[in-house]
Design a protein that fits this description.
With 412 residues, the protein is an alpha/beta fold. It has three domains: 5-64, Nucleic acid-binding proteins (OB fold (Dihydrolipoamide Acetyltransferase, E2P)), CATH 2.40.50; 87-116 and 250-411, 3-Layer(aba) Sandwich (Rossmann fold), CATH 3.40.50; 124-233, OB fold (Dihydrolipoamide Acetyltransferase, E2P) (Beta Barrel), CATH 2.40.50.1070. 26% of the residues lie in helices and 33% in strands. The strands form four sheets. Strands 7-22-23-21-20-17-18-19 form an eight-stranded mixed sheet, with helices on both faces. Strands 10-9-8-11-12-13-14 form a seven-stranded mixed sheet. A six-stranded mixed sheet has the order 1-5-6-4-3-2, with no helix packed on it. Helix 3 (155-170) runs antiparallel to helix 4 (200-209) and helix 8 packs parallel to helix 9 (351-359).
Length: 412
């Protein structure tokens, strides 16, 4: 057994780890807060650091709170829920600023954007089916953690998880489950990828028991079965947009709207402007922006997102938003715009997209990021052509290690 040692935490990060040192070794300890003192056990060694765990907490930080989630010590999803929320937001803001400074990036920071709800804000759950229960995976492993609910999910989604677990008790199976709820909490759709063929009777019971369950899609091998109408009518503008289950939309409805508004506030738009909206999904930002500019072109690789956006434009008779189901680099190489908005996945911009943004710059570039580390990697190259003007963190995921960031740039 690894020998225990006593240490004082120097700092904590938004990954949920405290930083301590033993001799010259840096050790990251899950759940330890800045200023706390603990007896620590090292659980694994890596090239430049080690990971540790708290064996005994000797001095408790004033901002520590008791996690409300019964699965906190296992799944790792709500990695910051041992920390008071104001400390969470302060940590995220400071880490963003520090990360930019370390990478030589100078920008004016706005206060972190936060919503009203710290729990039960998620409208989507991606879960694993392990025999008789829906599960998350254990932190940094693929060991299933059976759950009856999640403190980050909406009450309606949690209720449906319990109903599905009842089905699994009599119809055990393995596979994946996707649950999505509309932001007005009126509709839910479920998609199941089952590795077993004993699902049908059990899931048909759900449609009768859960009034808000609008539809289900079940994939079993090469067969796809559809029940009801598994399309979500998501409130948008002064109406609703019909979204397929696969279509991406941020899972925190209230903060999602604040994020969109931040993008609109960061841009300086004119009636003569053309806008390229890359990695644009079904085009929510373009659809909010289109009455202020000449035209918007949404570049998106996912077919469901493109189709949902096109159908909405047809229904609303919006004629200055068009869609291209193409890779972002292909769209950028073929089209010039006054304003470019990018919202890439966690791996950030490809090298081709970075090169094209630099070789054929727009007057304005707005970058929406869901990973600060790939963001700063991209900005280090982009700042050769663009002046960083403003940045803001957006806390779409309270209690977790994740933070969004929006950066506004202008051509030098």
């Amino acid at each position: 057994m690894t020998k225990l040692f006593q240490a004082v935490c120097e700092n904590h990060n938004m990954q949920g780890y405290g930083v301590v040192r033993k001799d010259k070794l840096v050790i990251f300890v899950r759940g330890l807060l800045k200023g706390e003192e603990a007896r620590v056990r090292i659980v694994s060694y890596h090239k430049r650091y080690a990971l540790g765990e708290i064996a005994e907490l000797l001095k408790v930080f004033k901002e520590r709170v008791k996690p409300t989630c019964p699965y906190y010590s296992l799944c790792g999803g709500c990695a910051l829920s041992h920390m008071r929320y104001d400390a969470q937001t302060e940590t995220k803001q400071e880490e963003l600023k520090t990360l930019f400074t370390k990478n030589g990036l100078k920008v004016d920071w706005l206060p972190l954007v936060v919503g009203e709800h710290q729990y039960h804000y998620r409208s989507k759950a991606q879960l694993h089916m392990s025999n008789k229960s829906l599960c998350y995976y254990e932190d940094q492993s693929h060991e299933p953690v059976a759950i009856e609910g999640c403190c980050l999910l909406s009450p309606s989604v949690n209720q449906l998880i319990q109903e599905i677990n009842q089905v699994l008790k009599t119809h055990p199976q393995s596979g994946e489950a996707l649950i999505r709820e509309s932001s007005d909490c009126k509709e839910i759709v479920v998609c199941i990828k089952s590795l077993s063929d004993n699902w049908q009777e059990g899931y048909l019971q759900l449609l009768k028991k859960v009034p808000s369950l609008k539809g289900m899609k079940v994939e079993c091998g090469d067969e796809v079965f559809v029940y009801g109408e598994p399309v979500l009518n998501e409130p948008f503008l002064d109406t609703a947009i019909a979204l397929q289950p696969e279509t991406f939309i941020q899972v925190n409805p209230q903060v999602r709207r604040l994020l969109y508004q931040q993008v609109l506030d960061f841009g300086v738009f004119h009636r003569s402007d053309t806008v390229l909206d890359l990695y644009g999904g079904f085009g929510p930002i373009s659809l909010l922006l289109c009455d202020q500019v000449k035209s918007c072109l949404v570049g998106e690789i996912a077919e469901s997102s493109v189709l949902d956006g096109q159908r909405f434009c047809e229904r609303r008779k919006i004629d200055n938003v068009t869609y291209l189901q193409e890779d972002a680099a292909k769209v950028l190489s073929a089209h010039k715009a006054d304003v470019v908005i990018v919202d890439p996945p966690r791996n950030g911009l490809s090298s081709d997209v970075r090169r094209l943004l630099c070789s054929n710059p727009a007057k304005q570039l707005i970058y929406i990021s869901c990973d600060p580390h790939t963001l700063v990697r991209d900005l280090r190259q982009l700042q050769s052509v663009y002046q960083l003007k403003k940045a803001v963190g957006v806390d779409l995921f309270p209690q977790t290690r994740h933070v969004e960031c929006v950066v506004a740039m202008e051509q030098k």
